Amino acid sequence: MTTDIVPQKPAPFRVYWQALRAYSFPASIVPILLGTVLAVQQTHRFHLIAFLLTFLGGVLAHAAANVYNDYYDYKNHVDVRPEHGSGVLTQRLLGAKQMFEFGTLLSVAALACGLLLLLMLGSSAPTGYIVGLVVVGALTALLYSITLKRYALGDLLIVLTFGFGFSLGAYLTQMAPLEPAWVGRVLLLSLPIASLVDAILHANNLRDRSDDRAAGVYTLANLLPLAWGKAILMGLLFFPLLFVVVGVLWHLLPSFTLLTLLALPAIVKAYRAISVVGTAQAHLLFGLLYDLSLLLPLLVAR
């Protein structure tokens, strides 16, 4: 049974910051920016307050998911070494009860952002769709941490939530019309971001493949031979660049998106090192260049 050793003194701010695993926040920030940009492309309007509440709520929800994931991995003996997870539980910097309370506080703050957002948008907003995305995202985050990650479902869940869910949610909160063609466009243009966010998870699972298997957690990284796992990581990292080149050639994407090729060195470095932090940095660099390049045609046209 995991013991809950609570530090004698209140934990300093840096410990709670470490618990957030802020290096992973690009996984939520980039798709929120993408969904916002695509909504502005369609409507030629930008709702600043809606964006800020969506941005803050999304990052807080992501932070809560990270904290809960740490908590359940620790309680279920998945994280046992000091370097596992954020390290705050395995290094006894926080007690398990403190960690759970911190995750709950972050969840309440994210929920408050969502309620304020819905009140601000009013009755004309696609409330049902937004609430549905929030509920599915919250359930997915909790169920993933509690049980689903044991059954090699992590890659699918991360693609659906961080790859598509955040982008579509941000698109809807900008009051963009719910037209099938544009929703399809949002999902299609989210593919490179979904690929990179899954690369972050897959790099993490490659690093932890032996420990996960020993704890009874099954992932693509430990179900397949290591060489296959590395090949999947290569595909996830380099697919976004291929998507951009093909998209420009087929006139699906503006030529500005070729700016994302500047992320190639970071992607190569992340693959060679099989680094979780390096993959997150590559995701951030590619994602910001991608979002900016989709916005540039609007700025140039003015």
Number of strands: 0
- Counting helices, strands and paired strands, the structural category is mainly alpha
| Major sheet | none
Strand content: under 5%
Supply Rg. 19 Å
Shape: globular
Q: How many helical elements?
A: 13
Mean pLDDT: 88
**Sequence stretches where pLDDT stays below 50 over 5 or more residues:** none
Instruction: Provide the helix percentage.
Output: over 70%
What does this protein look like?
This protein has 302 residues and is mainly alpha-helical. It has 13 helices and no strands. The radius of gyration is 19 Å and the shape is globular. It starts with 12 loop residues before the first helix and ends with a helix.
Outline:
This protein is mainly alpha-helical. 72% of the residues lie in helices and 0% in strands.
Could you give the topology of this structure?
Layout: H1 13-20, H2 26-43, H3 48-75, H4 96-121, H5 127-146, H6 154-173, H7 180-189, H8 191-207, H9 209-214, H10 220-223, H11 226-249, H12 264-273, H13 276-301
Features:
mainly alpha, globular, 302 residues
